[in-house]
Design brief:
It contains 12 helices and 21 strands. 40% of the residues are buried. It is an alpha+beta fold and 415 residues long.
């Protein structure tokens, strides 16, 4: 594996990093350098992004093991990538929990087997909370019990307790009165709220969804429930919740609470696997770039359901810390073809189902949503968040190299 290939794997795994071809002096963001097998690579991250906290330990692990990673020769670039991703992911899980890297390797092996199994031609779904203090008695892959285990622990409120060797220790149900509101911003999708509500300090949640996605999450002091890693379409992403939240905060030209609430709700949209385009508009001149102006609430051309329900939709607000007024309404509107247009300082919906005028500079790009997002980026008064039907989230930011005047569009893409 070449050093540049490892550098790209790191960019793909760590959401707050964007790999540069060469060091620059940007008018936004912070440069972060990593030494990979003796070569220096530069990434641009958000304004206060550094190597501090737990992520520093991961970066040090990568730098210390970069020579071994680069010398890996499995006669397959894809196998080498997956091997490196797994080593980085299990190390991050060790850093963020009380469970060792070796034990996490075994747990991910079990989860991988579950991903490949079906029950009556349907994918296996699992909700598991690992309690390092528990003592289990039965392996999840026990062949004689598999037909029973595969159908259990997969509904919205039922889950298994497992020990750190990933053996079944208990089988529980969350009652309605145990489910609490989110106290703050979270990177854990809202459908896992029953399980985050009953998790205790030191425990780790694992969700295997019907679409084959894997989410590993825990409760963090001051940050509450946060994702640690996700595995989607075979790709692993590692998360430090506050860093990705701060990426949203710094990339988006919006009020702090609005940006952080978008960080929160984008996970719900992502795991619905429907796709969405959210566009923040920085002034009222944005209307000239909307093809169907009847989609704009309160516009003189507004008609039909938009005209009659404008007052109800305008009650949606992303302005309050960790509390999104009209959250489920917003999720529904985001599934309508076209863009949801947001006012960045109040977090109110200004339009939905809007068609963004295609900019001349982006003609020929594949995909309607990508074309619309990149067109919005080219207009100085629009800032998009693109969520694909595969679940990946892309944030865009235009920056300038102060030394050369070069314009660069950063694309932070993650699952």
């Amino acid at each position: 594996m070449k050093e540049i290939e490892l550098a790209k794997i790191i960019e793909q795994m760590v959401p707050q990093l964007y790999l540069l071809d060469h060091p620059i002096r940007p008018n936004w963001g912070t440069l972060l350098d990593l030494i990979i097998n003796g070569r220096e690579f530069y990434y641009i991250t958000y304004n206060t992004g550094r190597k501090g906290g737990p992520i520093r330990d991961l970066f040090e692990f990568i730098e210390e093991n970069s020579r071994c990673f680069c010398e890996l020769d499995l006669n397959s670039g894809e196998l080498e990538r997956k091997c490196v991703e797994r080593e980085i992911a299990t190390k991050w899980l060790e850093i963020k929990t009380s469970i060792s890297q070796r034990e996490w390797g075994k747990i991910l092996d079990h989860i991988g087997k579950m991903q490949n199994r079906t029950y009556e031609n349907l994918p296996i779904v699992k909700n598991i909370i690992i309690d390092p203090e528990a003592t289990g008695y039965l392996d999840f892959s026990e062949a004689s019990e598999m037909k029973l285990i595969d159908v259990m622990g997969g509904s919205n409120y039922v889950y298994f307790i497992a020990d750190k060797e990933f053996r079944i220790a208990d089988y529980k149900e969350v009652s309605w009165n145990e489910i609490s509101d989110k106290p703050d911003y979270s990177s854990v999708p809202n459908f896992l709220r029953p399980f985050t509500s009953v998790m205790k300090a030191g425990q780790v949640g694992i969700a295997l969804t019907r679409t084959g996605d894997v989410i590993v999450y825990n409760e963090e002091p001051f940050n509450h429930d946060q994702m640690i890693i996700s595995i989607r379409k075979g790709d692993i992403t590692v998360y430090q919740g506050n860093m990705v939240k701060n990426l949203f905060r710094d990339v988006l030209k919006a009020a702090y609470n609005v940006a952080c609430n978008l960080f929160d709700i984008c996970w719900d949209i992502s795991y619905r696997r429907h796709g969405a385009l959210i566009v923040l508009v920085l002034d009222d001149d944005y209307e000239k770039h909307i093809v169907n102006r009847e989609s704009i609430l309160g516009h003189s051309e507004a008609m039909g359901i938009r005209k009659h329900l404008a007052a109800a939709i305008e009650r949606i607000s992303l302005l309050n810390r960790g509390q999104i007024a009209g959250r489920n309404t917003f999720l529904e509107l985001s599934s309508v073809d076209g863009a949801v247009i947001l006012e960045p300082q109040t977090g109110q919906v200004k339009a939905f189902g809007s068609i963004i005028e295609t900019a001349a500079s982006v003609r020929g790009i594949s995909g309607a949503r990508t074309t619309a997002a990149e067109s919005a980026v080219s207009y100085e008064n629009m800032q998009p968040i693109k969520i694909s039907s595969d679940g990946d989230i892309t944030l865009y930011r235009n920056i300038t190299d102060l030394d050369t005047g070069e314009e660069i569009t950063l694309k932070y893409k993650f699952y």
